[in-house]
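Treating backbone geometry as a discrete language has practical consequences that deserve illustration. In the encoding step, the backbone of a single protein was reduced to a row of integers, each denoting a local shape. The amino acid sequence and the backbone structure tokens for this protein are reproduced below.
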Amino acid sequence: MITSPLVLYSVNDRIATICLNRPEKRNAFNPELVTSLTEALLKASDDEEVKVIVLKAAGNIFSAGADLAYLQQLQYNTHEENVKDSENLKTLFTTIYYLPKVVIAQVEGHAIAGGCGLATICDITFAVPEASFGYTEVKLGFVPAIVSCFLMRKTGETVAKKLLLTGDLFSATEALAYNLITYVTNKEEINQTVRNFALKLCEEASGNSLMITKQLIGQTTNPGLENSLNLAVQINARVRESEDFKKGIAAFIAKEKIKW
């Protein structure tokens, strides 16, 4: 049951549209948004009227990653609280990855840090040319632990190191070349293009076959995924307790350039 206004849910022509609805905060993650988005995805999974899911965002930013107030609170969490919080993010990403229905991302603005992970973990991702992507965690003294479990299997080790170690932003065209997204589509056309793609799946593919094919790809390409994710959760929690993380978040909140 979705009770939060942070995530909008609608169904039309067997397509569920799930929309991040926190544009005033650049659709940044906080615990409520992560939980509500997971609930919306599970609702679509159980909805017999839904065959394909489109994930999009209100406003000009797809998602800027973690919310400022949320980041600040993480410094004061206990280890157990940070493990639980990391588990919640793991649950969101694995829900998308294991969901028996195809999830299409429609990225019409920047997707940064956790937002980048969200955009690239979907089965099919469309992005406008103006969108920027980036795993910027290292610049804040943080680690993109959970998303790295999926990223390396998409890009390979060389590209993953380039993206994760530098934390630099990159364009939609580069994201396409790195195999992080599927299509780059002009802003004027992306709504109709995504809809046409989703309708094509609805009309021309068996729902059961889509489910089994998605499961097959996941099981054969990521046989050790659960072990990697469990390790990533622990790393996530441990890094949040580090002095570098506290220093990075303090500088970020104060809008100061940090010198590592």
Remarks:
- Strands lie at 7-12, 15-20, 52-57, 61-63, 102-107, 110-112, 124-127, 132-134, 170-171, 183-184.
